[in-house]
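debug: dumping io for the single-chain case to check the tokenizer round-trip. Nothing else runs in this session.
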Amino acid sequence: MRTTPRIGLLHAGTFPALRTLEDPALQPYRVEGIYLPDADPAGLRELDVLIVGDRLHPGVRSRFEPAIREALQDPGKTIAVLGENSVQDWLPGVGYSFRPTVFWAWRTGTDTGTRLRLPEDPLWEFFTRRAVDWHHHGLLHPPSGARSLVTMEEDGTDSGALLFIDEVNQPARLLVTTMDPVYHHGSGFMPGATQLLYSILRWATAAHIQSLGVQRNRMG
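debug: decoded output
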């Protein structure tokens, strides 16, 4: 068993994605760029961590959607699906509601309704407020049992999730967000996006190591 996970970033060759892959801070994670127009969906089986890059063209992404759903059935995998990917159309049990995008609240300090939930959750060992309170593209409605860790509060109640983790509705560990960190990190626009991207990589690496420990314990 590999202690270091094999991580793939699914992308369509956009400038922000390519610039992100060249970031020296990502090199210790050995992130592999999976260029979807040329890649074989079957190759996703070899990855331990799949990061579905944000803003993928639907025509390119659709060829890989069955392979991503197949990966969800592998208990050894961790999958992160980033924003602007119409997850309500292809991820099981996930709903979506549109909300206008706020671009400058991270500079003005305006309260956009973003709330951090479940403060004792292990995820918060890797994520800070700055990493998750900067920008989003609508609300997610996760399946029952998923943990909504970043939500939007409207009129005193949560309207939906901006980031959730699901470890009960499929064997794999799944993180889904409507934030788009690859686009903004690669564009040099919004420092919180960079923090989110780095946090996802740290979290996914730790999750992989944890899953290896569980497998070893089961093997006795």
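debug: round-trip ok. The mean pLDDT is 94.
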